[in-house]
Specification:
17 helices
């Protein structure tokens, strides 16, 4: 769910894909648009922005790609044990997850309804802090505490699965990915026909949980990332001229998405588009990849994990205390974006990065505080 670029020594070769880092901020910006309260903008802007959750698909694909690049050879050769691997994954997510969850825990215990209206629950808290909340089809649970942390529950499942998936050959992995896509398609069709927008528990339809939150289905995007890594390692690249086209295609899909039934919109509709978008940006040497690899965007990409976790509570507080004096979206959007971004960069530098370094040094059994690999999700 923040990288400085893919700069990892694999054998004797050094791989640099720093544009993926800058792209993380672009994906986080799409998610930011979902939760921004569009009061004065037209329906067109609002309808496009509401589809920004496609940014999460980018993160999941990136996660599968990067873990394959960073860990596949080490796991297969036995250089990294399951214990070390999984502890390192926990060290990646936990510092920010726990820090951003604590205020919500406090507000729920103290019943500060103006800030956070959910009542305190030991069960919800325990599920959230152990990365299990997304397995429960109740919105008050999978959106418990800091709501965006639901995706970390999915990521933890992906991390656990990866250690075993990595043993499959590329051909078998492709078959598993295709098989799961068929299962998701059939499930979406059945839910559309027999359940529609039925709400079984919580505030959202069952289809919202099953196709947007449920880790067992969202791992499809993670698998796609693993498959794309195999293509990339084979030297298969798309022409750089394709990259601008992928932006047109992405925003066209976001414009058309409201007309797509929810089960398909949450699951398969965006998958071909975001897959093409991701893979096109693996082609280096183009103007756009150079832009995303610049130092300012690399920094923003590094801070994108913090940005993702703080953007929704940040917007909530800004709407409460600042929005009344700045009603215009044209003015309030850049102000709220700048404030949230600045806080995210600050949080990344003074807390996230040092905490991850420390935890990783303890896990590795040494006080090596060298800069950690930051191309992770």
């Amino acid at each position: 769910m923040g990288p400085s670029g893919m700069n990892r020594a694999i054998g004797t070769a050094t791989v640099r894909l720093e544009q993926l880092t800058g792209l993380r901020f672009f994906a986080a910006l799409l998610v930011f648009g979902v939760h921004f309260r569009w009061d004065t903008s037209g329906d067109f802007v609002k309808s496009i922005a509401e589809q920004g959750y496609v940014g999460v698909s980018f993160f999941f694909i990136l996660s599968g790609f990067v873990l394959t690049q960073s860990y596949k050879s080490r796991i297969l050769t036995g250089a990294t044990s399951f214990r070390t691997y999984f502890l390192l994954r926990i060290a990646r997510l936990s510092p920010l997850h726990f820090l951003t969850g604590l205020p919500f825990l406090y507000f729920s215990i103290m019943q500060v309804e103006a800030i956070y209206s959910e009542e305190f629950s030991i069960l919800k808290t325990a599920l959230n802090l152990t990365y299990l909340q997304s397995w429960v089809p109740v919105s008050s649970i999978y959106f418990s505490l800091n709501a965006p942390s639901w995706s970390l529950s999915d990521e933890m499942f992906f991390y656990l699965s990866f250690f075993f998936l990595v043993a499959f050959s590329p051909r078998k992995l492709l078959a598993i990915t295709a098989g799961l896509a068929v299962v998701v398609f059939v499930s979406a069709f059945l839910v559309l026909v027999f359940l529609g927008d039925t709400i079984l528990a919580g505030k959202y339809p069952f289809s919202h949980w099953l196709f947007y939150v449920f880790p067992g289905f969202r791992i499809l995007e993670f698998l796609v990332g693993m498959v794309l890594h195999d293509l990339w390692k084979r030297g298969i690249r798309l022409p750089g001229s394709v990259i601008p086209f992928t932006y047109v295609l992405l925003f066209l899909a976001m414009w058309l998405a409201p007309d797509i039934p929810a089960p398909f919109r949450y699951s398969l509709f965006y998958l071909p588009v975001i897959t093409l978008f991701f893979y096109a940006h693996l082609t280096e040497g183009t103007a756009l990849t150079h832009v995303f690899a610049t130092r300012p965007l690399v920094l923003l990409g590094n801070a994108s994990f913090a940005f993702y976790l703080v953007h929704q509570p940040s917007l909530h507080l800004l709407n409460l205390f600042l929005r009344p004096s700045i009603p215009s979206d044209i003015i309030f959007f850049p102000i709220s974006l700048c404030i949230t971004t600045a806080f995210s960069v600050f949080l990344y530098r003074i807390y996230e990065m040092p905490a991850e370094r420390l935890l990783k040094s303890l896990i590795n059994g040494r006080r090596n505080l060298a800069k950690p690999n930051q191309v992770v999700s």
